């Protein structure tokens, strides 16, 4: 389990992120229109999986905006933003913000948080996903991970996108 903090207070996750060099765990997530977004449906694409607690927080919203802006120039790459928000909330946020370069999905009825080791087990956000980034190549191999040590901080965008070079 990872030891992180939320507003300076210790928090634990259910496990660790997948290791660099390993195959990313398969996933089955829910889009804003309630359709399935799966690892199989994105096969052959490089993925930047941005994981966060809720789009209804300032840091999560900022990360979504930043990845949306940077994703516009990425070839054969899909940015997948994952939270346990209901898919309607993420879709509403993206529509209001003009976000169209990111696939926002919900893990509300999947084992994604456990499979990726990011479900927080304690603290005020227990049950939600921690802030993390997993980048895979077009074969689903993990090429970069970051478990953000403080949930209230943004991920290292430059390092995540440099892993695609």
Automatic annotation (TrEMBL):
Name the cystine pairs: 60-94
Which residues are catalytic? 60 (cysteine sulfenic acid (-soh) intermediate)
Q: Recite the UniProt keywords alphabetically.
A: Antioxidant, Disulfide bond, Oxidoreductase, Peroxidase, Redox-active center
Q: Which InterPro entries match?
A: Redoxin, Thioredoxin-like_sf, Thioredoxin_domain, TPX, Tpx_CS, Tpx_Peroxidase_subfamily
Any GO MF annotation of the entry: thioredoxin peroxidase activity
Reactions catalysed according to its record: a hydroperoxide + [thioredoxin]-dithiol = an alcohol + [thioredoxin]-disulfide + H2O
Which residue ranges does the record assign to the Thioredoxin domain?
18-165
A Pfam family it matches: Redoxin
Q: Which superkingdom is the protein from?
A: Bacteria
Task: Tell me the first and last residues of the signal peptide.
Answer: none
What family does the entry list? Belongs to the peroxiredoxin family. Tpx subfamily.
| Function noted in UniProt | Thiol-specific peroxidase that catalyzes the reduction of hydrogen peroxide and organic hydroperoxides to water and alcohols, respectively. Plays a role in cell protection against oxidative stress by detoxifying peroxides.
Give the record's subunit note.
Answer: Homodimer.
**Other facts noted in the record for this chain:** The active site is a conserved redox-active cysteine residue, the peroxidatic cysteine (C(P)), which makes the nucleophilic attack on the peroxide substrate. The peroxide oxidizes the C(P)-SH to cysteine sulfenic acid (C(P)-SOH), which then reacts with another cysteine residue, the resolving cysteine (C(R)), to form a disulfide bridge. The disulfide is subsequently reduced by an appropriate electron donor to complete the catalytic cycle. In this atypical 2-Cys peroxiredoxin, C(R) is present in the same subunit to form an intramolecular disulfide.
Annotated protein name in UniProt? Thiol peroxidase
């Amino acid at each position: 389990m990872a030891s992180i903090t939320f507003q300076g207070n210790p928090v634990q996750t259910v496990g660790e992120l997948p290791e660099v060099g390993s195959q990313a765990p398969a996933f089955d997530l829910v889009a804003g229109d309630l359709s399935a977004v799966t690892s199989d449906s994105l096969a052959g694409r490089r993925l930047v999986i941005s994981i966060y607690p809720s789009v209804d927080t300032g840091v999560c919203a900022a990360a979504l905006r930043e990845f949306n802006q940077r994703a516009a120039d990425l070839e054969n790459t899909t940015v997948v933003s994952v939270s346990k928000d209901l898919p309607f909330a993420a879709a509403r946020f993206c529509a209001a913000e003009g976000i169209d370069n990111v696939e926002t999905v919900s893990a509300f009825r999947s084992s994604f948080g456990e499979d990726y080791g990011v479900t927080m087990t304690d603290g005020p956000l227990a049950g939600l996903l921690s802030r993390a980034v997993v980048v895979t190549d077009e074969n689903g191999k993990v090429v970069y991970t970051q478990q953000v040590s403080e949930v209230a901080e943004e991920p290292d965008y430059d390092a995540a996108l440099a892993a695609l070079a």
